[in-house]
Design goal:
Layout (H helix, E strand, L loop, with lengths): L23 H15 L1 H20 L5 E8 L12 H6 L4 H8 L5 H11 L3 E5 L7 E4 L6 E7 L3 E6 L2 E6 L4 E3 L2 E4 L8 E6 L2 H10 L1 E5 L5 E8 L2 H59 L4 H36 L3 H13 L7 H21 L10 H46 L2 H33 L8 E4 L5 E2 L4 H26 L6 H8 L3 E6 L14 H14 L9 E6 L6 H13 L5 E5 L7 H4 L8 H6 L4 H4 L1 E2 L5 E4 L9 H5 L4 H11 L2 E5 L7 H10 L2 E7 L5 H13 L4 E9 L15 H4 L8 H7 L6
Parallel strand pairs: 14-21, 15-19, 15-20, 16-18, 16-19, 20-21
Antiparallel strand pairs: 1-11, 1-12, 1-13, 2-9, 3-8, 4-5, 4-9, 5-6, 7-8, 10-11, 17-18
Helix pairs in contact: 1-13, 2-13, 5-6, 5-7, 7-12, 8-9, 8-11, 8-12, 10-11, 15-16
Length: 783
């Protein structure tokens, strides 16, 4: 048997955990989507329930009418005044404050006034359009029902045990309710309900809509009521009460602001007079109008002396450089002279300028005498005479520079003395100037504050009612507010889908069986070789070649050719986790499908305890596999042809007393498989279920070149499939892949090319293999 140690069953939860593949989340989503699709009826039920609820709510809604009044709200002050103007006074420091002001419409206080004024405790149940122009409910009125009966000459009211009758247009009272009906409303009777004051206020607050218009201070105030007339009266009364409340608050705040401004003006004026008196007393003591002017004069004098002192020091440094240069030899001496002559103030000395010019002239003359081919040597009398003149001139320059330095030292000492005297005179001046400057700043600040306070006081005194809320458009009788049927239906659709899809997803999550190829591949970590549709089992074990089942087994044959265990495969075992999952069906159909292409195939029934293949092909069970293994029969007697083209069958054989696993574990199994592989192109082994006969199944699986694990959609559990794969991995079985049997949807396996795992899982490079290569990786017919 050929072994392939590089390829082992890969269980994501076995002894060698691996990172979750990049597409695993997508696989889980596809699995969940498939489960939801299988439970489409639950989604449809949720959708129908959502639409039914939406339709019921839309048709059962009470009639409502909305009326809107438009008001103008004064814009908060933005005049840039440091004190904030009237806007600051009113606390409307921006748009947010204005909107907060409008929230008074929703306050319980204003709602209570509207309820009491319009008698909103009296709410209609029937006859909502009844025109009642006056209605008042006394605070102590009991709750209950008020029934009005309209006759030809008047109205009769009944409330509990009380009743009253009145002609049209006359005010009457019954059970704490005062009302007047001006004329016959056109109906025979109307029924009203008297609710508590708190309930009426709460309902009014719910029906108020405040909607500011964009980029304006115009606001629409809308109110919804059971009748058009009541909506109109409620909206107009609400904006009137809002305007009155705003005006009262504005007036009170303006008055309070004026009082505080007057107090602040008085205090500021008193502080200003005290500061002015302090400044006058200070200047009389200093005997000067402004000590700052004297300080600045002394400071200018000191700065002039500092400048003069700096210039003298620079000149002295230049003479010192001259002396150092004259004492330096060669080129350093020449550079020192050049620096000295270039210094400011030096060329202004006539004697030094004259001596420097003579020195330059002598040096030039000497250079002309000694330069060139015909130059005179240094010992020549003429050159010696010029050198004597240069030396004499240098000595005279040194003397002139020394004299100039002495004069500069005397000047520097005099300037430093004058500077010290000036600084001594300036010492007491900064403190006096600082005190005077502080008093001046205080006076200036108090003066500005006085002007601002007086301007603000004048502004608030000129404030008029124009700064109050104004009603631009009064409300008209309300219009019918219809339920938004489309919106409610859309909400019903979304809600129903949410409930239906959620329920289906929960049921899918709770389902512990493998139902789709994505489920199996994600759980087991093996390629899906084929997905066999459920209809393949209705007409018998062998599927029709032209049907969907036949196509599924051709897909299995093709994918096996490209699988990772295909090279050199001669024996292929087919097993499952438990019984009834279709391993015998898959083994028989795989053998028949391969045989149709001309390959010689042997189908071996390796499950003596549950032998079925002899019945499928209509042959005898004996002799067979057990007889070969026990040496009771030969090849010619045990192997027999079948009705399927190029397919031979080795049935289970004579039942034995020993357990099937003991027979399969005998030492004769592997030599027998080797001889079978030499006689046939492909040997398909139908071995026992892994969990039903672990030892027997593991023995054959370990000896085979490849193993196919069959799982049945909707029946094979996740844990049994995982445990079966662990058992096969424990004996180092060469796993070829998984076949999903009896799938309701059928179809192809989830598309890894040719049924392979991605390269990271399979350990091989996934690529397209030509048709001629496919014949070399799965046995074809032997010539």
């Amino acid at each position: 048997m050929s072994q392939h140690p590089d390829f082992r069953a890969e269980d994501p939860l076995d002894w060698n955990p691996r990172p979750r593949p990049a597409g695993e989340e997508a696989s889980q989503l596809r699995t969940l989507a498939a489960g939801v699709a299988r439970r489409w009826w639950l989604v449809a039920l949720g959708l129908a329930a959502g639409l039914g609820c939406a339709a019921y709510l839309a048709t059962d809604e009470e009639p409502a009418f909305r009326s809107t009044a438009t008001i103008w709200v004064p814009q908060p002050s933005s005049d840039g005044s440091p004190l904030g103007g009237i806007g600051s006074l009113m606390g409307l420091g921006g748009g947010g404050a204005s909107l907060s002001e409008l929230e008074l419409v929703r306050s319980r206080a204003l709602g209570g006034e509207v309820v009491d004024s319009l008698g909103l405790r009296l709410q209609g149940v029937e006859g909502a359009d009844l025109f009642v122009d006056t209605a008042r409910v006394e605070p102590g009125a009991p709750g209950g029902t008020l029934v009005l009966a309209f006759g030809a000459d008047g109205v009769r009211a009944e409330a509990g045990t009380e009743s009253a009758r009145a002609p049209y247009g006359r005010l009457f009272r019954v059970a704490g309710v005062r009302l007047r009906v001006p004329r016959h409303p056109g109906v025979e009777r109307a029924e009203f309900r008297v609710v508590s004051r708190d309930d009426a206020i709460g309902r009014f607050q719910e029906n108020v809509i405040v909607r500011p218009r964009d980029r304006t201070t115009v606001v629409d105030v809308g109110i919804t009521a059971p009748s058009p007339r009541l909506a109109e009266r409620s909206a107009n009364l609400a904006v009137d009460l809002l305007r009155q409340a705003h005006s009262r608050r504005t007036e009170a705040e303006v008055q309070e602001r004026g009082r505080r401004l007057r107090q602040q003006i008085a205090f500021n004026d008193s502080s200003l007079h005290a500061a002015q008196a302090q400044l006058a007393g200070f200047r009389s003591v200093q005997e000067t109008y402004n000590s700052g002017d004297l300080f600045r004069t002394r400071e200018a004098e000191r700065l002039g002396l500092e400048t003069q002192l700096s210039e003298l020091r620079e000149s002295r440094a230049a003479y010192a450089a001259l002396l150092e240069g004259l004492r330096s030899p060669g080129a350093a001496q020449e550079r020192g002279l050049d620096v000295f002559i270039a210094s400011p103030g030096v060329m202004g000395q006539p004697l030094i300028s004259q001596l420097y010019g003579s020195l330059v002239q002598y040096q030039t003359q000497r250079d002309s005498m000694t330069a060139g081919r015909w130059g005179r040597p240094a010992g020549h009398p003429d050159v010696a005479r010029v050198d004597e003149l240069i030396g004499e001139t240098r000595r005279r320059l040194v003397g002139a520079a020394g004299s100039a330095m002495q004069a500069l030292d005397a000047q520097i000492a005099g300037v430093e003395r004058r500077r010290g005297e000036t600084q001594a005179k300036m010492q007491p001046l900064p403190a006096a100037d600082a005190r005077e400057e502080a008093v001046l700043r205080q006076i200036e600040g108090l003066g500005r504050m006085s002007l601002l306070l007086r301007e603000e006081y004048t502004r608030q005194q000129l404030a008029t009612s124009g700064d109050s809320i104004r009603v631009m458009d009064r409300a008209l009788p309300g219009w019918r507010v219809k339920a938004n049927l489309l919106q409610m239906l859309v909400l019903g659709v979304f809600g129903g889908l949410l409930v239906g899809v959620g329920s289906a997803a929960v049921l899918t999550t709770l389902d512990s069986t493998l139902r789709t190829a994505a489920d199996a591949e994600l759980l087991l970590g093996l390629p899906i070789l084929s997905v066999v549709p459920g209809e393949g089992r209705r007409s018998g074990i062998l599927a029709a070649p032209g049907g969907r089942g036949g196509e599924a087994y051709r897909t299995l044959r093709t994918n096996l050719r490209f699988s990772r265990v295909a090279p050199g495969v001669r024996t292929l075992a087919v097993t499952s986790a438990g019984t009834g999952e279709g391993r015998t069906t898959v083994a028989a159909n795989l053998a028949a499908t391969v045989g149709r292409q001309g390959a010689r195939v042997l189908l071996v029934d390796c499950d003596p305890g549950r032998a079925r293949l002899h019945a499928v092909f209509g042959t005898e069970r004996e002799p067979g596999l057990t007889d070969l293994l026990l040496g009771d029969a030969g090849w010619d007697a045990a192997v027999r042809p079948t009705s399927a083209a190029n397919v031979s069958l080795l049935p289970a054989g004579t039942p034995v007393g020993l357990a099937a696993s003991e027979v399969l574990e005998s030492g004769a199994l592997q030599p027998m498989l080797a001889e079978l592989a030499a006689r046939f192109d492909l040997v398909v082994l139908d071995i026992p279920p892994v969990l039903a006969d672990t030892a027997g199944s593991a023995s054959v699986a370990a000896a085979a070149d490849g193993v196919i694990l069959v799982v049945r959609a909707g029946r094979t559990g996740r844990e049994p499939a995982r445990l079966a794969l662990r058992q096969l991995a424990a004996v180092h079985a060469q796993m070829a892949g998984v076949v999903l049997n009896d799938s309701p949807g059928g179809g192809e396996p989830r598309a890894h090319p040719a049924g392979l795992l991605p390269p990271r899982r399979a350990g091989v490079q996934v690529g397209r293999i030509a048709a001629d290569q496919a014949d070399r990786v799965l046995p074809g017919p032997r010539g």
